[in-house]
Amino acid sequence: MAELAALGHGVEELALEPSPEYAPAFRVLWQAGAAGLPAEGDEQLALLEPLTRWLVGRGRALGARELAAALTTLAAFERSVIRQFTHVDAVITPSLAMTPRPLGWYDPDDAEENFAQQVRYTPFTSFLNVTGLPAITLPVDVTDAGQPMGVQLIGRPGGEATLLAIGAQLERRLRWQRRHPPQW
Q1: pTM of the model
Q2: What is the structure's pLDDT at 2?
Q3: Do residues 143 and 149 touch, judged by C-beta distance below 8 A?
Q4: Where is the chain membrane-spanning (predicted)?
Q5: 69-72: which pairs have CB atoms within 8 A and are 24 or more residues apart?
């Protein structure tokens, strides 16, 4: 944030209005999306990862009313987010809620736990899939282990040019192109 201010950008804190109905509706959307995967019968379903198989099963069990209710909820959420962002050119969030996870961190067997882990790891990105707002992720720092960490810039509808301009300014200021892993 200090780097953006140093570039002359106004910076203010913004918190999205709570939406307790968002997460359950988003889960329904993911399940419904998976329902269309071309995997039929036990033999093909067995080839899927447990999480994907779980999403497919849950999605195919959804009723039309449940899906319609979720879509209505998400449409209202979309309008709310866009309204909340109208007074700013861009919003910055962390890209991820945690440092890069080690191999094996996601539960390979318990699909519901795996889904919950993914939600905890990427809480700042799913709502952009729903709203359709433009976003870019920029590496801005590294962990003590040398793993890149990023921020996500979110724009207004049609605001891609603004995001790319801010992103280019930030990358030049941080000289990210000169950074590389120690083993290089």
Answers
A1: 0.86
A2: 84
A3: yes
A4: none
A5: 69/25, 70/24, 70/25, 70/26, 70/28, 70/29, 70/32, 71/25, 71/29
| Residues 156, 83: Cα–Cα separation, whole Å | 10
Name residue 167's amino acid: G
Specify the length of the chain in residues.
184
Q: 145: exposed, middle or buried (C-beta count within 10 Å: 0-12, 13-18, 19+)?
A: exposed
Give pLDDT, residue 148. 85
Per-residue pLDDT tens digits for 9-67: 888 898 889 899 999 999 999 999 999 999 999 999 999 999 999 999 999 999 999 99
DSSP letter at 8?
A: T
- What tokens appear for 112 in the block? 């519901």
| Continuous H helices in the chain | 2-6, 22-35, 41-45, 50-61, 64-85, 111-121, 126-131, 160-174
Q: Which residue has the tokens 């201010």?
A: 5
| Category of 181 on φ-ψ map: left (φ > 0), alpha (ψ -120 to 50) or beta | beta
Q: How far is it, in rounded angstroms, from Cα 57 to Cα 40? A: 11
Domains of the chain plus CATH, in order, are: 2-12+20-176 (3.90.1300.10)
